[in-house]
Amino acid sequence: MLATILLVTFSLLQISYGATDPFLSDRATFPYFFRTVQSKKGQYFAISQLLKYFGWTWVGIITTDDINGDESYQLLSNYLSSEGICIEFSLKLYNQNIPYEELQHKSTSVVIFCGTINLKTAVTLWELPDIISDKTFIFTSDLIYYSYLIYYALTLFNGSLIIIQNRADYIRTNARLRQFIASVHPSMHPEDKLLEAIWLLYHSCMAENMSLTSIHKRIYPPYLPDCTGEERLTDLQAFNDDFHTRNMIIAVQAMILESSKMHYRQNLITEQESAKNRKVIHFKHQGQFLKSFNENGELVSPYHINNLFITNDYLSDKKIGLYIPWAPPNQKLNITHNEIIWKTESNKVPRAQCSDNCLPGFRKALKPGAQSCCYDCVLCSEGEISNRTDSENCFRCPDTEWPNANKNVCIVKGAEFLSYTNDVISVFFSSISVLLFVITLLILGIFIIYRDTPIVRANNRSLSFLLLVSIKLSFLSVFLFLGRPVDITCMLRIITFGITFSIAVSSLLAKTIMVCVAFKATKPGSSWRKWLGVKLSNSVVLFCSSIQIIICMTWLAISPPFQELDIHTSPGTIIIQCNEGSAIGFYSVIGYMGLLAAVSFVLAFLARSLPDSFNEAKYITFSMLLFCSVWITMIPAYLSTKGKNTVCVEIFAILTSSAGLQGCIFLPKCYTILFRPEINSKSFLRVNKFC
Fold first, then answer.
1. 145 touches 18 (CB < 8 A)
2. pTM for the complete prediction?
3. From 1.20.1070.10, 1.10.10.10, 1.20.1250.20, 1.10.540.10, which CATH number describes the 424-687 domain?
4. Which has the minimum average pLDDT: 129-138, 246-255, 612-621?
5. Alpha-carbon Rg of the chain, whole angstroms?
6. Contact at 8 Å (CB) between 619 and 665?
C-alpha cells in the first residue's frame, strides 16, 4: 500500500496481480493503479450469493487477528447482513485463545475463512480439533497463492468450497511454457538471487552466499548437500500442483500491450492526455470469457467455484460452479449441484440454519432477543397465505378468493345460494310448493264445480275464488326464492308474495266484514241491507291491496332490492343473496300485511259468536292466528340467520302461512261438499249448523 502511494506521487503506472484491498479502487487517490484481480468486495459478494443459493443463513467466520482480518470480516459481514445471513460465531486466529468447549455447541455446518493466509494460518488451522474439521469451509481466492499450505490441514479442506479467479491450466496445456521453465537454472542466471533462494529452500542446495547458507542451516536441518545441477523447477511438487493463477501473466501482457500503444502515440499526444489515457486502459484478454478492466482499474472476470476433496491421500478439486459478475441477476450464479462431494452422510447438503425453514402457509416470527435468522414458524391468519418458503409476512387473498387448506395459494371462493342441484332442501321446498299448488288447484276446481251450492254461495264465492288464486300465486312465488339470485328475482320475490298475501288477507278481511254486515242486515228495517252485495267486498279488497301496491312501487322506485355478494360473513364462501335495498320498504310491506291480518283477526274474533249459518268467522279467526304466529316468529329468525338459511326461513313462512289459510278456510268446506252433501242445502242452512 505504501509503495502504491509513493508511486502515485510520480504518476507511474502500476498493474498488480494480487492486491485486493477495496481502498485501491478509489480512482481519485490511485489514478494510475490497475490490478488483474477484483477487490475483496467482488468475491465476498459472490460468497453471499453462494450462501443464499444453498439456503445457508447461519454461518461461522474464522479470520486472522490483524488489520487484513478485521477489514475482511467487516466487509464480509456487511454483505452477509444485506442478504439476511446471520453470523453464529466469529473466531480470530493467532492471538485469541480458541474456545474449544464453546465451538462444540455451535450448530452451523458452514464456516467462511477470510483474512491473511500464510504458514502460521495453516498451522493454527491444523491445531483445531475435530469439532471444526467436520464443518464445510468456504475459502477465498487468496488461498491459490499458498496452495502448498493445504496439506498442513488436509482433512479441513476435504469437502469444502473455494472461489477462484483467473485460474490457469498452463502447466498441463502449455508445453512451450513448461519447456521454458524446465530450462531455468541458477547457473544460467547467477545474478538472479531469487533462483538461488528457491534452490536453497526447495532443493536444499548450498548457496554461494555463505551468510544465506548459514541462516538456512539454523532454521532447517543442518545438512545441505551440494546439488548435482540436474535439479529443475519442474521437479517441485508445488509446480505440478493444480492451483495456479494467470494474474501475473495478464498483468505482464497488459503492461506490454499498453506500453506498445503509448510508444506509438507519444509524439502525438501531450503528457496530460497521456495521463488521462492511462486512467482508462481497455485491455481485453481472450479466454473462456471476455475480460476487461472496469472503471475502477480492476480486471473483471468470472469466479470459478471449485469443490475440494481427498482421493488417495491427495487433495483434488473440480469445478462445480461459476459466478459471472456482468450476467443478469438470475443468471450470475450457475451451480452443478450433483457434482459436489460433501462431508456429510449420504452426501447431503450441509445444514446451516438457526431455525428450520417455514413452509408455505407459515410466516417467520422473530424470537425475542435473537438474531433475525432465529425465528418460529407461525401459521398464517385466517384469510391470508404465504406462497414461498421462509416468508416474512402473509398477505391477504383478494375478496373473491380464499386460502386453501395449506394456506399456500388463494382459490376462488365457493358460491352459496339455495341451489336446485346442490341443496336437498330446495327439492323439498319445490315438491311441497307444487303439491300445495295442486291441492289449491283441486279446491278451486271443486268450488267451480259446486259454485251454485249453498255453502259456496253463502261464503261469497267471488272472494273465495280470489282467495284461492292468491294462495296459488303465493305457492308459486316460492320458486322466485330458489336458484341463484339476480336483480330481477330479488325485486320480484318480495313484491310478489307481498302483493299476493295482501290480496289474500284483504279477501279474508272482506269476508269478515261481509259476515258482520250480513248478520246486521237480517234485522227488520236494518240500513245495512244496502251494503250487501259484491261492491263492498270488492271495494275492501281493491282498497287494501292498492295500499300494498303503492308501498311496493314506492320501494322499487326509491331503493329496490338487488343482488349482493357477501364475502365477509362466511369464511371461504361468497354468499349470493338479495339485499332489500331499503329496510324501511321491506318492513313496511311486512308490517302492512301484519296490520291487515291483525284487523281481520280482531273482526273475526268479535264475529265468532254469530249464528252458525254465518260461522266462517271462526275459521278466519284461527287462520289469522296461525298467519300472525308464523310471521311474528319469522322476524327474529330472519334477522338471526344469514345466506341461504334466511331464504329457507322466508320460504317456510310463505308455505306455512299459505297452507294455513288453505287448510283453515277451504278444507272444512271441501269435506262438507264431498262427504256431507246432505248438509250442503238451503233448508239445512236455515235450520241446522254446519261444520
1. yes
2. 0.63
3. 1.20.1070.10
4. 612-621
5. 50
6. yes
